Amino acid sequence: MKLNKLMLPALVSVLGLTLSGAAMADSHSLDHCIKAVNAAKAGDIVKLESLNDTGKVIYEFEVMDENGFEWEVMCDPAKGKVFEIESEASSPASSRFNAKVPEDDALRIALKAYPGVVEEVEYEIEENGSPTYEIDIVSKSGVETKVEVDGMTGKIIETYTENWEIGVEERERR
User: Fold this and answer.
1) Which of 30, 112, 122, 123 is least surrounded, with the fewest CB atoms within 10 Å of its CB?
2) How many Å apart are CA 160 and CA 83, to the nearest integer?
3) Domain ranges (residues) in the chain
4) Would you say 58 and 158 are in contact if contact means Cβ atoms under 8 Å apart?
5) What's the rounded Cα separation, in Å, for the pair 148 and 160?
6) How many CB atoms lie within 10 A of CB 25?
7) 153 with 101: CB under 8 angstroms?
């Protein structure tokens, strides 16, 4: 299934989500990102997140290819362009995920910087082959922060707050 802008309101309704008027009005830029993602990585879009990058909205798409591999594709809606593609490993024990930093240490690092409850963990391989942990943490106030920890150094390399999410990947839930 290829997600398109006509499906967004239906998905929002079915999933019981409420998007702000600004998010729905921005469906034109979302449409551009959907087209860019479909051109960059063939497969089914299984999840879509709107993220806040210090005041700038970006979209994170999870795409499953025909071989069952998952890819994370980041798109800048202001430009309608993909700016990052990462592959995902199914577990930290995957032969493709060669992290020096154990998962427990990555979780401690992320939780120290952003206290809360871990909601999801993804094992990603950057375009340069470097392993990273993407950890979604929900604070006591309900704010979800996506924290990316470098699997080789243990340093936090990216953080975003989540505006909204459509779709769930149960195997990544905690």
Assistant:
1) 112
2) 15
3) 7-168
4) no
5) 9
6) 10
7) yes
For strand 131-138 and strand 70-76, is the pairing parallel, antiparallel, or unpaired? unpaired
Residue whose pair of structure tokens reads 């930290």 in the numeric block: 92
User: Distance (Å, rounded) from C-alpha 4 to C-alpha 31?
Assistant: 6
What is the DSSP track for 92-105? TTSTT---SS-HHH
* Structure token digits, residue 81: 């362009």
Residue with tokens 């922060």: 145
Q: Provide the whole-model pTM.
A: 0.83
What 3-state class would DSSP assign to 16? coil
Q: Domain 7-168 class?
A: alpha beta
∠ CA 106-109-115, rounded to 5°: 120
First to last CA, the chain: 27
Selection from 68, 75, 10 nearest residue 49 by Cα:
75
Confidence of residue 20 (pLDDT cuts 50, 70, 90): very low
CB 164 within 8 A of CB 47: no
Residue 113 pLDDT grade (very low, low, confident, very high; cuts 50, 70, 90): very high
Distance of CA 53 to the CA centre of its chain: 13
The confidence score (pLDDT) of residue 42 equals: 94
